[in-house]
Amino acid sequence: MNKLTISLSPHIHSSGSIDRCMWNVVIAMMPALAVAIWTFGLPALWVTLVSVTACLLTEWLITRYMLHRPSTLTNGSALITGILLAFNLPSILPLWMVVIGAIIAIGIGKMSFGGLGCNIWNPALVGRVFLLLSFPAAMTTWPSGVESGFDATTGASQQADASSGATLLTHLNAGDTSLADYNLLDMATGNINGSLGEVGGIAILIGLAYLLLTKTITWHIPTAVIASAALFSWAFGGNPLLDIFAGGLLLGAVFMATDYVTSPMTHKGQLIFGAMIGLITIIIRRYGAYPEGMSFAILLMNSFVPLINRYCRPTIFGEKERRAQA
């Protein structure tokens, strides 16, 4: 016999839903996707389409034939994972590697935990890190003929960077951090090299504005990540602007660290979460073996989310009065 469980009032009614939040995120990513296609051309489109298709197909197969549940593709979460995975890949990555990354992202990063709402780590980053550790050469080979964001008249030569496929983080790790050595406008508008989602800082910030206006996310995590990264970049002798716009810091701060499932529930916890991501990212960039630390920083802090939620719980309603009476 089924029992109907009714919670006590008050009841909060809202037009928000999982589907609406997910599709808002998809809409917010469109400017960044457009800049990536404009910068890298059709290869960027193919990487994105293959990543999205593989993610959708993997989730559908697992849901139907292993979990025996109704399809969950309409909520948009698998689509988001596919786009985010593509944003973390070079446009010239072999498509069969893209498929492997998508299968790992959905199959291991998401569905092995039970599906949406149950995963511990961000699925797209699970796929990205798996590919980075398995195929490091392919994951750090960038398309030639794309500018690096450096001014050809000062510092490193744009022409040399375009022929070798260098990225801004290449120069960052070499100690080329002078503001005069790179073109901030190129960094902001997508005229730089890197993964699909690492280009076009302005496009990512437009997506952030949309997410904030639609109240899909709050300002706490993106602000904490960016502010922390800027602070510790300056403290470690780096250039805050270069660290913010180079690599995937903006992408991670806006679209991946803010994932509902793998981020803290309270605003205080979100500020701690974001600040630690910024710190860890800068430490890895300065002293780690990999030029980019954003993915590892987010995954590491994902692991601490249960602990953060435990120690940043809000006061229970009526708890203050009970303590006062005691």
* Low-pLDDT windows of residues: 148-166
Specify the structural class.
mainly alpha
Radius of gyration (Å): 21 Å
Mean pLDDT: 82
How many angstroms separate the termini? 43 Å
Number of helices: 16
- Outline the biggest β-sheet: none
Form type: globular
- Name the helicity range: 55-70%
The total number of structural domains is 2
Extended strand count: 0
H/E element string?
A: HHHHHHHHHHHHHHHH
Give the strand content.
under 5%
Protein name: RnfABCDGE type electron transport complex subunit D
Organism: Lepagella muris
Write the layout of secondary structure elements.
Layout: H1 18-40, H2 42-65, H3 77-87, H4 95-108, H5 123-134, H6 136-139, H7 158-164, H8 168-173, H9 184-189, H10 201-213, H11 220-235, H12 240-245, H13 249-256, H14 267-287, H15 294-311, H16 319-325
Notes on the structure:
The protein is mainly α and 326 residues long. It has two domains: 122 residues, no CATH class; 149 residues, no CATH class. The chain is 60% helix and 0% strand. The longest helix has 24 residues. The termini are far apart. 46% of the residues are buried. It comes from Lepagella muris. This is RnfABCDGE type electron transport complex subunit D.
